[in-house]
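I am sending you the entry underneath: sequence plus fold tokens. Let me know what the token row says about the fold:
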Amino acid sequence: MKEPDIDAAAKVIWDYMQLKDDLKKCDAIFTLCSLDIRVAERAAQLYLDGFGKYLIFSGSVGKLTEGKFAKTEAETFADVALAMGVPHEKIILEDKSTNTGENVQFTYNLLKDKKLSAKSLILVQKPYMERRTYATFKKQWPDSSAKIYVTSPQIAYVDYFNEACPKDLVLNIMVGDLQRIKEYPKLGYQITQDIPDYVWAAYQQLVAHGYTKHLIVN
């Protein structure tokens, strides 16, 4: 595949992964931390714009952030929010989780321990992980009545890649995440979602081209 063909296939998956939710004010902004600091900036700005009563950062150290930050993902993201003007007392840290399922489970338990209501939440994640985050939350969050919206940094595919998030890494992760959207419902990790044939065809093209580093190995 030539570079334009790679980008065309990747853009198909990128677009499928984004939910384009129309955000409403919620009880909390729930940030699933990662290697992309722009996710912290998006979450903090949403808080500053009045979209949540408090701001949650969830994440310890994962495979992609090991050795990248001096602190846990949650603490690193919280520092970004504090620098942007979010009050310290409005930030909640969950710094034990190492995957998306734990992000959801551990945050639910933490809020329950703190006796905080979270009947509505805005989930903030990387652009290419919105759909997987939604699917995981719907399966793992014990309160099925909770209203959720999902968002991410408002960045186009062509402008997304940088030193922290190089294209090769992102495309490998994105391909792996689409595979998980297909396979994880069978394991009880996520709800089932429809994957259109044209999206799966784009996945197969990228796999055939070697974007296999983050695939599940059976």
